[in-house]
Amino acid sequence: MKHKLLLAFSILLLIGCDGEISIVDSPDTKSRNSHYISNRAPLQPSKLIKLPVGSVKPEGWLLEYFNRQKSGLTGNLGKISAWLDKKDNAWLSKGGEGKWGWEEVPYWLKGYANIGYITEDKEMIDEAKIWIESVLNSQQEDGFFGPSFAWESYISEEFRTKEQEQKKKKAIDFWPNMIMLYCLQSYYEYSNDQRVIDLMTNYFKFQLDIEEEELLSDKHYWHRIRGGDNLHSVIWLYNRTGEKWLLELAEKIYRRTASWTSRGHDLKDIESSKAKREGVEYPEWFTDIIDWHNVNIAQAFRTPAQYYLLNGDEAYLNATYENFNIVRDHFGQVPGGMFGSDENARPGYDDPRQGIELCGIVEHMNSDEHLLRITGDIFWADHLEDIAFNSYPASVSPDFKAVRYITSPNMVISDSESHGPGIANWGPFINFNPFSSRCCQHNHTQGWPYFTENLWMATPDNGLAAVVYAPSIINAKVGNDTEVSINNKTKYPFEDNLLFEFKMDKSDAFPIYFRIPSWAENSEILINGKKVHVKAVAGKYLRINRKWSDGDLVNLDFPKKIILKTWEKNHNSVSVNYGPLTFSLKIKENYINKPSDKSAIFDSKWQSDVDKDNWPTYEIYPGSSWNYGLILKDDLNETFEIAEKQWPKDNFPFTNESSPIYLKARAKKIESWKIGETKLVGELMDSPVESNEIEEIIELVPMGGSRLRISSFPVIKN
User: Fold this and answer.
1) Which CATH class for the 2-28+455-490+497-557 domain?
2) Which of 24, 183, 224, 336 holds its CA 20 to 30 A away from the CA of 133?
3) Considering the entire predicted model, what is its pTM?
4) Where are the domains of the chain?
5) CB neighbours of 250 closer than 8 A, spacing ≥ 6?
């Protein structure tokens, strides 16, 4: 009893000196934010609320990424990509007719426009406006908008038949419009243009009125699988208009969307390309997911959680977690946050040499952002950082002028050869090409701007939540209608410390929630230089509710330590983590430029006046040995040594040479581990592995900066 009283007294002292400080699982939803739009009744309240585009500005290395996007592919695709040619483009036609159309324009615009809004780049905003204005003016009398039919734009001529064309023409393709609705929502957040609300209202009335079997018809594959994006936009509009019929439409859309909740489908029900390794049978669990195409998984596994907002049944929320776990249990035994599927996940192909499509990477980041807002669960923030820091950067060239379609945790060659069936793609899919493939070429643009928008979120109690960490400035309304600007000065994830500087015209009381990452033990928090005597708990939020003033400072320190992850289902291989960073073997990368038109896949197309010499393909070959296993000791300090270098002058730490941190590790070569039969890195053998080679000290560098890497290591037998 005495101890309890003393504890209560100490808390009261904390409340008196520094405000109310507590540890919580997620923000409470009993109240409703006065400044930002959140879910209306009867929708389930979201734990976190997205701020309007432009509220969060990148700084430091993140701003450098934005600059490279502007000067690289993102800023130039409108000049070089045939799919963005303004001549004969269905997105620029009042009637929706044209040779070029479908998903490429909204994929690109989704990132391009948001970079413009976030950085206040007039040239980019003006260019985006051309496309947005055309979309707003394209609405037909029945409410439909956009391309009426875009067959030519997404089916290669050699695969096109009159029979297929007629089948497609009989049904509306809603998929490209789902992406464009994201673009319109961002534009509305930026401009408050009422025409967006009008267009979406009329479009959704059209969807409500058409026969149910015509909505997300099975004559088109993508829109049935990804119908959750349509559902998201309906909910977005309902929260702004309160029109009850939108809830009826939401139910209709969910009924017409492929089932990401049910389990035990027949193989014939699985809609993606089905393949398996020779001699391997389809396991029972393979039918527990409706589709095994990598992007569909990354994008649509969240659909049940989105529907949970509508019906409130936690079974749907749980189904999303189940989807995640099913995939990770069988294909996600790899570092970097993603899973090994190449184009489509195939039983028998689960080695870390299997990769992931770039579209899958950025779409999974978007899914994590959605789920973080819905649930407030720190799990999704941790996972978002895992992908953003370890998988995404290596899938794009450092200058952001070329993308790699497939990127793997273990890959030691990045050439223009075909590596099927080693990967589930036949053709030049692992080089860096500015024109390959058309989906990733345009869709990669959303990665960093959407990541930036979700660094901070509003909370129901008129506060803010710092949920993902990167150098940035937030400007938002809090408390009693107070404007606050908070500058997160940090080099995270490469350094431990985060400094938050407050600028305010007046003092005001409001809560801020700081995420404590699941790996961050013994975190330290200071307010204005005074240590907070509340123990931060890894995987929870630190809630500080106090009267904040201009000039306030908050310091968060997340001491990193080396943590090994053992992948039991992948030959007991291991990966090395240091905070949110996964580390890979440093392999000397020899770059060779190749003509991009001779090393692109079949659907790559560029505008007629493009100087392709300015947009080469990059092939990368290893200039050093890669076939190492780690020598592990019980005391990891006997295996690894942490080393640091100066921060790069160009503010870009995502290359092998520029990283300010690296590890030294004890290792031995494994002579039998060689390039495999499909000219990919050989598959892992069971650990521990015998080696008679001499012990060496190798360097490990952040996985995200390694375009060639070994990230999942065999363990050497002691």
Assistant:
1) mainly beta
2) 224
3) 0.95
4) 2-28+455-490+497-557, 72-257, 562-587+624-710
5) 231, 234, 235, 238, 310
